[in-house]
Design goal:
CATH superfamily of chain B: MetI-like
CATH class of chain B: Mainly Alpha
Mean pLDDT of chain A: 87
Distance between the termini of chain B: 73 Å
Helix content of chain B: over 70%
Oligomer: heterodimer
Number of helices of chain B: 13
CATH topology of the largest domain in chain A: D-Maltodextrin-Binding Protein, domain 2
Order of helices and strands of chain A: HEHEHEHEEHHEHHEHEHEEEHEHHEH
CATH architecture of the largest domain in chain A: 3-Layer(aba) Sandwich
Number of domains of chain A: 2
Order of helices and strands of chain B: HHEEHHHHHHHHHHH
Radius of gyration of chain A: 23 Å
CATH superfamily of the largest domain in chain A: Periplasmic binding protein-like II
Largest sheet of chain A: 10 strands, mixed
CATH architecture of chain B: Orthogonal Bundle
Structural class of chain B: mainly alpha
Low-confidence stretches of chain B: 1-6
CATH topology of chain B: MetI-like fold
Distance between the termini of chain A: 57 Å
Structural class of chain A: alpha/beta
Chain lengths: 350, 339
């Protein structure tokens, strides 16, 4: 009798579990911290519209890659794109969601925002510890009109692994040969000089407090903390300021179609208006997902976000993907992602 | 009649008492059995709790060794003496974090032990009664502040203060003194190993103080009064009566504080500067084992990187073990010398 009761109870729970997803589906994702604010905002708006929730844990890109490889989440998120071989090996598809820019920020007495101009070689030499004072001839040469004090440069970098660091070091590797040979590009590197601070807010705070310092932060943090940013000389030799437009310009000039998994790193892109330090953040999903229902819902969510989420992204100082790239991403979904029977996971009209 | 009755009653009594004894014996054996059962249940329960700690500890060791095996086999003992920490080429060494951990802990103990002992002496020997409670409560509150608060306070208030005051003063003071000048070399960043050590000293202070205060007040008054009777000064009483009497307890408190200083993570991460460098200068940025793990574990990509971070954890475990063993040895030696 008791067993029968248990069986019935078990059956009811199982039935409820089967029925429940039809009512509201929770999509689970984990990874990068950089896009967390916009994913959370999108999820909130999406929930209101469709009643489907998104549970995103911002545990870091490394954790996101691990979790999607272990298939414990519907999607993983990473600020650093995976290489084509690794995507192939783990059977993953990759696509970018939003972009952001990285901005060098300084704290030099008498110098205002958007005043000092640096180029890649000089920026690299500062972070290598070769340029030690603000009145160094190399800096003066680029800033004839700015009065620079004879002050020691304090380099501030990230102490935690980060997509921001990856973009910054990737840029320096492209424009400074010595940096490429000695340090290289990664989410964390062996910094030749300087002090480390945790998170964008840590770097922003340290630069704000330390006289003579230079650091690099996400665009939003530079704006919110009212830090003095520098201009940069881009690949075309033009001096540009960090704005949403110059990030867009970099994205527009990138070769998205020619890169597997849209894994473009938007550093040192060509184009007269391109800001040389931008990057997208990426989503990773299995080509043949274990839970086709959840994966389909996740794709619906991102489809919705590409369509209706641009304004929300701009409000939070992110840059939406260009329409042309979004179209290519959607095409890649229907051509690459299949359920277990080999049928396309999602059929999109456009 | 009376006597017969009396005999009968005695016999009755004897009989009754015999019966009573029998019933008593059976109920007593029952009660004893019950007590025995509860006794052995209690013993099993406490033993299980104690063994649980052993199992837990060996579980931690096994998982640390298993997790760090890749780095352990790849770098070997060279891991301990290499200063490199390069996630790009996956070349890792623990020298800088070990160095930073030891230096900040030494600075912390260097300040917290004398200050803590002095506070405890004042509270037990010299303090007027009405002041004891406020100071005692203040010390305990200091222990109750979460470490993240110390970290934030250190970064926003303490580090800028040091950058403007103490650090330029030290640099100027020792600028021309041979050995000291290299201890205080470099630009004043505000944050660095000295700042981390000072924050740790504040965090460790309540441990040293409250334990020493408790053991100091356990000294029998008659000993102290006898010493005062011999016209000893307060310092002489503390030096020759209180301290020798409470040595073991004081060392226990110091070791507890040292254990906290070695493992403290959040507060240190905020103010140490997080640079994988071994520098002689105390005001230069450095890093500690726990700060490195806290900073880098979330975004560590690749097996070798993760494994090296776990190996750092194992090293911290071993350092803590060595410190505790040294404390035991010290206590043992003192005990042998006394008796």
């Amino acid at each position: 009798m008791k067993h029968v009761k248990t069986l019935i109870a078990g059956g009811v729970i199982a039935a409820a579990a089967i029925i429940y997803p039809a009512v509201a589906i929770d999509i689970s994702g984990a990874g990068a911290t950089f896009p967390y604010p916009i994913y959370a905002k999108w999820a909130d708006a999406y929930k209101k519209e469709t009643n489907n929730g998104l549970n995103y844990q911002s545990i870091g890109s490394g954790g996101g890659i691990k979790q999607i490889t272990a298939k414990t989440v519907t999607f993983g998120a990473s600020d650093m794109p995976l290489k084509a071989e690794q995507l192939e090996k783990d059977g993953l598809v990759q696509f970018p969601t939003v972009m952001g820019g990285v901005v060098p920020v300084i704290n030099v007495e008498g110098v205002k925002a958007d005043e000092v101009v640096l180029d890649g070689a000089v920026l690299g030499d500062i972070f290598l510890g070769k340029i030690k004072t603000w009145d160094d001839p190399a800096i003066k040469k680029l800033n004839a009109s700015v009065k620079l004090p004879q002050q020691a440069i304090v380099v501030v970098h990230r102490s935690d692994g980060s997509g921001t660091t990856f973009l910054f070091t990737d840029y320096l590797s492209k424009v400074n040969a010595e940096w490429k040979g000695k340090v290289g590009a990664n989410t964390a590197v062996e910094w030749p000089v300087g002090i480390g601070a945790k998170g964008n807010e840590g770097v922003a705070n340290n630069v704000g407090q330390t006289k003579g310092s230079i650091g690099y932060v996400e665009y939003a943090y530079a704006k919110q903390n009212k830090l003095a940013n520098t201009k940069l000389v881009n690949k075309d030799g033009k001096t540009v300021s960090p704005t949403a437009e110059s990030f867009m310009a970099a994205a527009a000039n990138a070769d998205w179609d020619g890169t597997p998994g849209f894994g473009v790193v938007l550093t040192d892109e060509p184009g007269a208006a391109s800001w040389p330090l931008a990057g997208a953040t990426f989503i990773l999903m299995h080509k043949v997902p274990q839970d086709a229902v959840a994966a389909r819902e996740a794709l619906k969510f991102f489809d919705w976000a590409y369509g209706k989420g641009d304004k929300m992204a701009q409000d939070l100082d992110y840059v939406p993907m260009p329409d042309k790239v979004v179209a290519a991403i959607k095409k890649s979904w229907s051509s690459q992602m299949k359920d277990k029977d080999g049928k396309p996971l999602i059929a999109l009209s456009n | 009649m009376q006597s017969a009755k009396g005999e009968q009653s005695v016999a009755d009594l004897a009989l009754q008492s015999g019966a009573l004894q029998a019933s008593e014996a059976s109920s007593r054996s029952k009660a004893l059995a019950r007590l025995k059962l509860s006794d052995s249940a209690f013993r099993q329960l406490t033993r299980a709790a104690a063994y649980f700690v052993l199992i837990l500890l060996s579980g931690i060791i096994v998982s640390l060794v298993a997790g760090s095996w890749l780095a352990l086999t790849n770098f070997g003992l060279g891991f301990l003496v290499s200063e490199r920490w390069n996630p790009v080429t996956e070349n890792f060494g623990a020298l800088a974090p070990i160095y930073g951990t030891l230096v900040t802990s030494i600075i912390a103990m260097f300040i917290a032990v004398p200050v803590g002992l002095m506070i405890a002496m004042f509270l037990t020997e010299l303090c007027p009664q009405w002041l004891r409670r406020p100071i005692g409560i203040a010390i305990e509150l200091l222990a109750g502040i979460p470490s993240i608060i110390y970290g934030i306070w250190g970064l926003f208030v303490f580090a800028p203060f040091l950058q403007d005051t103490l650090q330029p003063f030290l640099i100027g003071l020792f600028g021309n003194v041979p050995v000291m000048s290299s201890l205080f070399a470099g630009p004043p960043y505000g944050i660095g190993m000295l700042t981390a050590g000072l924050i740790l000293a504040i965090m460790v202070l309540p441990f040293v103080t409250s334990i020493s205060r408790d053991v100091f007040s356990a000294v029998p008054p008659v000993l102290k009064e006898a010493a005062y009777g011999l016209s000893c000064t307060t310092w002489e009483v503390v030096r020759n009566v209180v301290l020798p009497y409470t040595r073991i307890g004081v060392i226990g408190g110091v070791m507890l504080g040292l254990g906290r200083a070695l493992g403290e993570t959040m507060a240190v991460t905020f103010v140490i500067g997080n640079a994988h460098k071994v520098s002689a200068s105390l005001i230069a940025p450095g890093t500690t084992i726990s700060a490195t793990i806290a900073n880098e574990f979330t975004e560590a990509v690749g097996d070798m990187y993760t494994s090296s971070l776990i190996l750092l954890g194992l090293i911290l475990f071993v350092i803590t073990f060595i410190v505790l063993a040294a404390a035991r040895y010290m206590l043992l030696r003192i005990a042998r010398r006394i008796g």
